[in-house]
Write a structure and sequence with these properties.
By secondary structure, the protein is α+β, with helices and mostly antiparallel strands. It has helices at about 20-30, 30-45, 80-90, and strands at about 5-10, 15, 50-60, 65-70, 100-110. This is AgmX/PglI C-terminal domain-containing protein.
C-alpha cells in the first residue's frame, strides 16, 4: 500500500487575518483525502514527486468557492496542481460575514 504525506506547509492566510482562518483550516483538513487522491495520481506517474503548492481561492457570500488557482508550486506537475485546485472549487465553507473572502492555503507533498 502506498502511503503519502500531505500536510499544510504553513498556516492558512486570509485577506483580513481573522478567526476565519481557523474555519478554513477545518474545512481543508476535512477534505484532505481529496488532495491526497490528487497527489497519489501524480505519484503513480512520478514516484519521487514532492514539493509545495499554494492554492489561492475566493469564498462567495454563500460559502461556495467562486474560483481557485494553484500558485507557487514546486511540484512541477500541472495535473496534480489542477486536480487540487479543482477539488478546492468543490468545497463548501462557512459563509463569510460580509461579501466574499479571499484565502490562500499551502500544501506540502512528500512520498512516505
Amino acid at each position: 500500500m502506498l502511503t503519502t504525506i500531505v500536510t499544510a506547509a504553513g498556516p492558512a492566510r486570509a485577506d483580513d487575518g481573522s478567526l476565519y482562518q481557523t474555519l478554513i483550516r477545518r474545512v481543508v483538513r476535512a477534505h484532505m483525502p481529496e488532495v491526497r487522491t490528487c497527489y497519489n495520481e501524480g505519484l503513480a506517474r512520478k514516484p519521487a514527486l514532492a514539493g509545495k503548492l499554494t492554492v489561492n481561492f475566493e469564498i462567495g457570500s454563500d460559502g461556495h468557492v467562486l474560483n481557485s488557482e494553484a500558485v507557487d508550486s514546486t511540484l512541477a506537475d500541472p495535473k496534480v496542481e489542477a486536480c487540487v485546485a479543482a477539488a478546492v472549487r468543490s468545497w463548501l465553507f462557512v459563509r463569510p460575514d460580509e461579501g466574499t473572502f479571499k484565502a490562500s492555503y499551502p500544501f506540502e507533498f512528500a512520498p512516505g
